[in-house]
């Protein structure tokens, strides 16, 4: 079974802090994704990585950056956290560009005070 | 752009009731369609999918048929259980990587 893990289930940070959310997948997948999930809005894509050191902006990249130094790990970075970034963050991976199904991690619920 | 509209919740049902969650989409080309489920405290899991018109996806007693003429992919289950309580997301993929999600429908099944 594909396993996607996220470093924290719950995280509380203060406004202005730099925040790192980590995601690791164990199936040698090429593509990885970061989404945020908000009530009534569904999931919105923040960033996408199609290979190591490659990244592409999604629909809502403002205030976020990403890093993918190794194939299995994809990090989401909030350079200076703000209260409007309080949300559930979901990481996903898929084996390659011709495969549609994505596998999701359990999510990190981030609260910014 | 591509988009998905699904019925708003929350939906509350009794055990063994019939469940329908409506989903319609707008897309260029011929998208693949999905239903994902998120159980409490967990990430999303793929429930079922359909890749072309008139395909029927099914899993765990749930079904959905890809209707191109009505641009719909409604989710149905004939007899729900308490364990079906979850948030259900309709989604489409019309490009090489992007999944577009609906807002999600929260379903609560009471014993």
Helix-residue proportion of chain B: under 10%
Query: Mean of residue pLDDT of chain B?
Result: 93
> Which descriptor suits the 3D outline of chain A?
globular
Termini gap of chain B? 41 Å
Q: Structural class, from helix and strand content of chain B?
A: mainly beta
Query: Rounded to an integer, what's the Rg of chain A over CA atoms?
Result: 13 Å
Largest interface, with counts of residues having CB < 8 Å to the other chain, equals: A-B, 24 and 22 residues
**Low confidence ranges of chain B:** none
For the report, how would you describe the main beta sheet of chain A?
Answer: 7 strands, mixed
Number of helices of chain A: 0
Please name the defining characteristics of this protein:
heterodimer; A: 113 residues; mainly beta; 11 strands; B: 111 residues; six-stranded mixed β-sheet; globular
Q: How do you describe this structure in short?
A:
With 113 residues, chain A is an all-beta fold. Helices cover 0% and strands 57% of the residues of chain A. Chain A contains no helices and 11 strands.
Strands, helices and their partners?
The complex is a heterodimer of chains A (113) and B (111).
Chain A lengths: L3 E3 L3 E4 L5 E7 L5 E8 L3 E10 L2 E4 L6 E7 L2 E6 L8 E8 L8 E2 L3 E5 L1
Parallel strand pairs in A: 2-11
Antiparallel strand pairs in A: 1-3, 3-8, 4-5, 4-9, 5-6, 7-8, 9-10, 9-11
Chain B lengths: L2 E4 L4 E4 L4 E3 L1 E4 L5 E7 L5 E7 L5 E4 L2 E4 L9 E3 L8 E8 L6 E2 L3 E6 L1
Parallel strand pairs in B: 2-12
Antiparallel strand pairs in B: 1-4, 3-9, 5-6, 5-10, 7-8, 8-9, 10-11, 10-12
